[in-house]
Design goal:
Layout: H1 4-11, E1 17-25, E2 30-37, E3 42-43, E4 53-68, E5 71-84, E6 88-91, H2 105-115, H3 120-127, H4 131-147, E7 156-165, E8 169-176, E9 181-187, H5 191-203, E10 213-216, H6 220-229, E11 234-237, H7 239-258, H8 268-272, H9 280-288, H10 295-307, H11 317-329, H12 334-345, H13 347-351, H14 353-356, H15 361-377, H16 383-394
Helix pairs in contact: 2-4, 4-16, 5-6, 7-10, 7-12, 10-11, 15-16
Length: about 400
């Protein structure tokens, strides 16, 4: 433990820094490495980088380092303050830690690697630190990574909201479709979120006027936000949300008919699934139902036909949708008629899919990652923490962690 040369090499220290000794407390299981600098050494000013600054005085500081085997290890050093002719008295930066951090760079790199795969609270328990200290590390690297984000070539964006916590708190995600990365996450799900995205896009080298394609659900707030803040973007309405509108209408028909038709009780998920996805038991139940006489069965066939829209050749899609619309609006099923009118109001955006071929499947997958991370961590205490994790797991940030 007193081999200072070995410890010096392990820490990668270069002059004027040197390991002077190491102390191991067997009872506490703690290793303290003592570091000092050569007397008379000169340092660069941390503000203006002027060289040849002499030490004015020193302050003792301690940093948590990577464990030595199972033992917690700390670096301790006298850190000089220098007198710079231009900047005055400033404390120098040490090569093993960033300013104002109580951890070494290598310890932070380990933490960032772990929190990418594990809840922060779990990492805090493993390393023996309070999770609030680790969150400060996460925010530092995420903020720096976001500052380096280049959005100059972004032209296609998917927009969707995700629940931040139980209740009515939401975060809206803006995803670069071509790079499969979260560009921006912000609180709320109104038109102002799109304006905030446009501002953030410009701050990272992008141009709101260069966004050519946007995939959204049929939220009036998103529609207005795109029109106001992304004026050149053609809107594609996400096909999964479009099908969901018809699905919801089928379920409304079933709930109303179930009051007179007991055979429909317990069949909800049969009508919400595609025939190929039914279990053997569900398929047997469906085959035993008097489908020729059920309104729900008619609504189900209309739903399947709408879904088949997306299998049509591009040049036949508009004609197919017109035929479907006529059928749906003459079905005498009020929820289906209402859903068909919703489709009519969003006609161009639904058919735009045949040109853009974009959908929110990508962003739904990212939502799944976010929800799984939330479930593992149980809670994030703050929206800021949740957004940091979203960027970390789905932002493809250039973190530049020390090696």
């Amino acid at each position: 433990m007193r081999d200072t040369t070995l410890m010096q090499q392990a820490l990668g220290l270069t002059p004027p820094w040197t390991v002077v000794r190491s102390d191991f407390d067997t009872k506490a299981g703690r290793l303290d490495v003592q570091i000092d600098f050569t007397p008379g050494s000169r340092f660069a000013c941390p503000t203006c980088s002027a060289a040849d600054c002499l030490a004015y005085d020193t302050q003792r500081k301690t940093w948590r380092h990577l464990n030595f085997f199972q033992h917690q290890t700390y670096l301790n050093a006298r850190v000089p303050r220098v007198r710079c002719e231009a900047c005055g008295i400033r404390q120098v930066n040490v090569p093993w830690s960033r300013p104002d951090s109580g951890f070494t760079l290598l310890f932070e790199a380990m933490v960032m690697t772990m929190v990418s795969a594990m809840p922060v609270k779990a990492v805090a328990r493993i390393v023996g630190e309070h999770d609030t200290r680790l969150w400060r590390v996460v925010h530092h690297y995420v903020d720096e990574g976001r500052a380096r984000t280049d959005a100059s070539e972004v032209t296609r964006v998917a927009i969707d909201e995700t629940a931040a916590r139980r209740g009515h708190d939401y975060i809206t995600l803006f995803v670069d479709i071509d790079q499969a990365r979260v560009l921006f996450a912000t609180e709320g799900k109104d038109a102002a979120t799109v304006a905030a995205f446009a501002e953030d896009l410009a701050a990272h080298g992008g141009d709101p006027a260069a966004i050519e394609e946007v995939c959204i659900d049929m939220s009036p707030a998103f529609i207005k936000g795109v029109a106001d803040s992304l004026p050149a973007a053609a809107v594609t309405f996400d096909k999964f949300h479009a099908v969901k509108i018809i699905n919801d209408a089928v379920d409304q028909v079933r709930r109303a008919e179930q009051k007179q038709q007991d055979v429909l009780r317990g069949t909800r998920y049969i009508w919400l699934r595609n025939p190929d996805n039914l279990s053997e038991r569900q398929r047997s139940t469906l085959e035993a139902l008097p489908t020729r006489h059920l309104k729900t069965a008619r609504a189900y066939q209309i739903r399947l036909a709408f879904q088949d829209l997306y299998e049509q050749p591009s040049d036949e899609a508009a004609g197919y949708l017109k035929t479907w619309y006529f059928w749906a609006t003459h079905s005498r099923l009020e929820p289906i008629i209402e859903a068909a009118h919703t489709v009519k109001r969003h006609w161009d955006g639904i058919l735009r899919w045949f040109d853009s071929k974009i959908a929110n499947g990508l962003i739904e997958g990212i939502n799944s990652l976010v929800q799984a991370a939330k479930a593992k961590a149980r809670s994030y205490r703050s929206i800021r923490n949740l957004k940091a994790m979203i960027y970390l797991v789905a932002g493809k940030l250039d973190l530049r962690l020390p090696a």
